[in-house]
Every structure is written in structure tokens, then in C-alpha cells.
Amino acid sequence: MNAKAHPVTATDPTERKPSEKGAAENNISQLQAVIFDVDGTLAETELAGHRVAFNRAFKEFGLDWHWSAALYGELLAVTGGKERIRLYVETYANQMLGRADLDAWVASLHQRKSEIYSELVLSGAIPLRPGVARLIQELRTAGIRIAIATTTTPAGLRSLIMANFRHDMDMLFEVIGAGDIVAAKKPAPDIYQWVLGRLNLPPEACLAVEDSYPGLAAARAAGVPTLVTVNGYTADQNFDGALSVVSDLGEPNVPANPIAGLPLTQECVDLNQLRTWHRLYSETSQRAVL
Ligand code: XBP
Ligand code: MG
């Protein structure tokens, strides 16, 4: 296990005027929004969801490709389904690189994969991870703003949310940053910057929940303190710089396990725990700039 977390760092507020600085410090000392990743964080979608959908789409397109569980783990190094198909072509099927219509062909293959994924998810095949529904409900009740920052397509997300919450995603999440809405996918910070812009909040007023190294890197590059909930594909990744790393969000009768970073002081991650971590983060940030 390579997961460890380092002390959090602050953005440099010295560029702000004193009055702005005071306002910003007030803002960041209170948790105002939680930004969730989707795949691997809300649900274990990769192995039995996206991977299966890719393989079914390959068959329909007459391809003899098969992404095993292990190969898919390698391909997860790249985020985004179209980008992942391209990585496979470049690494294992480079005879396809000669196709003049490669971009359009990849897009249509991915489009079909996305339809299959939605059907799979709507059939109820992919449940939420422990604690996800509980925490989202608690945040809603407390008036904490909730957003999404994901590389997956909006259609797939809509299906996942509909299947598990019986609500349209726009009812649950105030801001949804998904798919190709930004050009550079995680680990680039763009999707987090886009979401922060829509929330009109500084990154320090938010917490991100991620499951992977590319997700953590994206959130950190945007300045958002990040909780990591690991899963089978990501448990051995490097989580340096995470605020805290835990096994999952846990449930009152099925506690989460602490892994690294700020300690889990309760049996599961709830709003109180998030506020405690965020307060410790804000205090560290403010001390670092004094
Ligand atoms: C994870 C991803 C996604 C999915 C596939 O996204 O990298 O690309 O594996 O989804 P995140 P699409 O963790 O940011 O939610 O095929 O819809 O791109
Ligand atoms: Mg993820």
C-alpha cells in the first residue's frame, strides 16, 4: 500500500487586498460545497459496468478485442472512454491508426458503449458504494452545496443516478461537470476549475471526494482539499497530498477503515467528519500563510 497523505498546502493569498483576504479566509473556514467524482467513488462502475459495456460494443462492431479485468486496470491510467479506446489502439491495435476516419469511428464505438453502459446501469447492476446515499442525503438536509466533477459522459451519470436515487441528477447536484465539457480530462484541473466557476466558490471552501490518483491530482491542481475512498483498482495508487484516505464512506453498522492522512475519528464519514477535516485543513492553510 503506497497510500499516504502529506500536510495540506495553501494557495498564496498575498496577491489579494487585505479586505479581500479577510473575506476569503471567512469563506474558506466553512465547508460550503462537496464535489463528488463518479466512477469508483459514487459506485464501483469500472469492472462490471464500463468494462463490460466496452467489450459488448467491441463485439457489436466486429472486433476481436477483449478487455480483461487486468488489462482494464492498465487502461484506467487514461481517463475518458474515447481516450481509453485510443490508448488501446496505440498500444495493442496500431494497424487501426491508418484509418482516415479514426476519430469518428472511435466516437461511434464509444457512443454505442455508452448506450450499453446506460442499459446495464438502469437494470440495477451497479449499486452505490457504502455511505454514498447516506452522506448525500445528509449534505442536502444541511444545505451544503453538492456538485459533480467527472470524466464520464452525462448520459451514463444520469442513468447511474436514476437507477440508484430514482431522481434526475439535476435534482441532486447543483453543478454537474461531466465528459467533454472541458477539453483536458483528469488529471488536468480543468473539470474542477469549471465546477468551481459555476459554484462561484474558492477551492478552499470545498471538499472533493475522489477514488483514484488522476482524480486526486485533478482536484489538488485546482486547489480543492480531497478525501480519497479507495477501491480495488486504486488501492495501491499514490495518494500523497490527500486530506484523508479511507476504505470507503462506511455505514453506522459497517465502519470505514482509515488508511492515511487526517484520521477518521468516527466509524463512518458523515458531515461532522467532513467539517472536522475541513476545519483542520483551513487552520493549517491559514497558519501556513501567517
Ligand atoms: C472515470 C473514467 C471514465 C470511465 C468511462 O471517470 O475515466 O472514463 O472509465 O466513462 P471519473 P466514459 O472517475 O472521473 O468519474 O466511457 O463515459 O468516458
Ligand atoms: Mg473516479
TrEMBL record:
Pfam families for the chain: Hydrolase (PF00702)
Segments passing through the bilayer: none
Record Gene3D superfamilies: HAD superfamily/HAD-like, Putative phosphatase, domain 2
Residues spanning the signal sequence: none
Ranges for region Disordered: 1-24
Bias (Basic and acidic residues) ranges: 13-23
A molecular function GO annotation: hydrolase activity
Cross-referenced NCBIfam families: HAD-SF-IA-v3 (TIGR01509)
Protein name, UniProt field: Protein CbbY, chromosomal
